[in-house]
Amino acid sequence: MGFQNNTAETEQILTDNYERYYRLAYSYMRNEDDALDVVQESAYRAIRDCRKVRNKDYLSTWIYRIVVNTALDMLRRKKKETTTEELPEIPVEDQYRDLELRTVLNQLDDKSRTIILLRYFEDLKLEDIADIVGDNLNTVKARLYRSLKKLRLNLEAEHYREIPDKS
């Protein structure tokens, strides 16, 4: 398999899944411009490095990994630049617009949040998620279970905080 084949295949995957990559990037960045930057940088990295992928069957999950890592890198850089961050306005079309859910998702560590987003928002198989995050399947399953339990507890806590006291 040559470089040219991987390049064409990579470009096709990027084109076919652009909106999915954007949604994933937006779920991390919570800002349209930053999400677009993540997708653009990810596409550049994917096309630049696609010849390193030996099996074309892994290109799709490899690109997801690039998007996740690029978003996390950008978040780390932004965190160093500013210590306080205001919650940005959320566009109406945002698929992850539920503020309560977003709040509890952001309480998870990066890897756990990535697993939840890829499984339930991007509908990826656990095997593909394991490839993307670089863990074995059992580790991903365990992390998913723990993360869902933590999310449920955090959502319940948020819900009870919002119920007015009727005494």
Compose a concise summary of this entry.
The chain is an all-alpha fold and 167 residues long. It has 8 helices and no strands.
Structural write-up:
- There is one protein chain.
- The protein folds into two domains: 1-88, RNA polymerase sigma factor, region 2, helix turn helix motif (Rna Polymerase Sigma Factor, Chain: A, Orthogonal Bundle), CATH 1.10.1740; 98-167, Winged helix-like DNA-binding domain superfamily/Winged helix DNA-binding domain (Arc Repressor Mutant, subunit A).
- α2 packs across α3.
- 24% of the residues are buried.
- It contains eight helices and no strands.
- It starts with a helix and ends in a 5-residue tail after the last helix.
- By secondary structure, it is mainly alpha-helical.
- The longest helix is centred in the last third of the chain and has 26 residues, at 137-162.
- Residues 83-97 have low confidence and may be disordered.
